[in-house]
Amino acid sequence: MNGLPLPDYEAAPVNPAVRLAALASTDMAGVEALIADRASSATAVIPAIAHHLLDAGGKRIRPLITVATARMLGYDGRGHLPLAAAVEFIHSATLLHDDVVDDSELRRGKQPANKVWGNPQSVLVGDFLFARAFMLMVDAGSMEALHVLSRAAAVIAEGEVRQLAAARKVATTRAEYMDIIAAKTAALFAASAQVSPILAGAPAEVEAAMEVYGRELGLAFQLVDDALDYGGIAVELGKNTGDDFREGKITLPVALALEAGGADERAFWVRTMADGRQSPDDFDRAVDILKSHGALDATLEAARGHAARAVDALDAAPDNVWSQSLAALAEFVVERAY
Predict the structure, then answer these.
(1) Cα distance between residue 196 and residue 199, in whole Å
(2) Strands (E), the chain
(3) Phi, psi of 214, deg, nearest 5
């Protein structure tokens, strides 16, 4: 089967994402079948590009959250499956578009689709996946869930435009950056967790709490990635370490270092990030500057706080193996940085 492997739950490794996927193996198999079916097309290049990304080792965390929250709340229908597949299609569509905008060289350990097929094809297949996502939302039979996910898609697009506008702008503040990632990353996590309570007819306070869980998890997830880009390894990240630096993205570690640094360091960031004039040794110097101000530690501490708030939000949900697994997933998001 394409996508996330689904091992036996009891024998699964410590990684909570894998353990949760194993717990949800039957539902995730249904999601994978929908993904394979709806990514198909008589136009051969469409499934080729779609599966180049969809089968590249993504852990399906967002649709997994949709499935897990449904089962956590005792939902026994099938509507959560097309919603989970829609979530993955929205995520994949944004990645196809991102790689074109960022001119990325690596995605999940291999060449991104636009480097293989070209930018126009990648953009159009991203549009195709967005269209398929909306068809799946309709299949779920909930106008309210459709509203939540369609609103998230719009917010994500706004966040990506804001990030593009902020690229190479060293005046970007930590508050501005947090607003950007709340839109481009956390919005889909939040919607992924919110739609199943809608299907399950959960009380409003439970739905609100699950939206908080997803949003806080998404913020933690992005901040850890920001820190890992300056200290992780490419095989773990699925992208080149230092991509954010080379692309001039002002992420939280850089924003914090800019706040704390003096004129010489600011001149370094202006040259390398704003002007894009970088030498082979500049990335190492950037890492040294970030570490000297504790910017990476501060970013991970912020991620830890968001993960803790995600766990706290689960207090509103039933205490069962599903909620316990979702809590473990939030904690693991930060632990993977160490």
Answers:
(1) 5
(2) none
(3) -65, -45
User: What single letter denotes the amino acid at residue 54?
Assistant: L
Domain residue spans of the chain? 16-332
- Look at residues 189, 186, 182, 184 and name the one whose alpha carbon lies nearest to residue 159: 184
For CA atoms 23, 67, 56, 287, the dihedral sign is: negative
**How many C-beta neighbours within 10 Å does residue 44 have?**
8
Q: Is residue 86 within 8 Å of 62, Cβ to Cβ?
A: no
Residues 131-160 pLDDT 10s: 999 999 999 999 999 999 999 999 999 999
Average model confidence (pLDDT) across the chain: 89
Round to whole Å and give the CA distance between 302 and 48.
39
The token duo for 104 is: 């990325």
Report the alpha-carbon distance of residue 202 to residue 180 in Å, rounded.
30
User: Which sign, positive or negative, has the C-alpha torsion 294, 296, 302, 305?
Assistant: negative
Asked if residues 224 and 246 have their Cβ atoms less than 8 Å apart, the reply is: no
Tokens matching residue 51: 């599966």
Verdict on whether the full-model pTM lies above 0.70: yes
Q: How far is CA 20 from CA 2, 69, 299, in A?
A: 18, 11, 26
Sign of the alpha-carbon torsion through 245, 291, 338, 194: negative
How many residues does this entry show for the chain?
338
Q: What six digits make up the tokens of 206?
A: 């439970």
Structure tokens given for 89: 């299609």
| List of residues 6+ apart from 301 with CB closer than 8 A | none
Question: What CATH fold (topology level) applies to the domain 16-332?
Answer: Farnesyl Diphosphate Synthase (1.10.600)
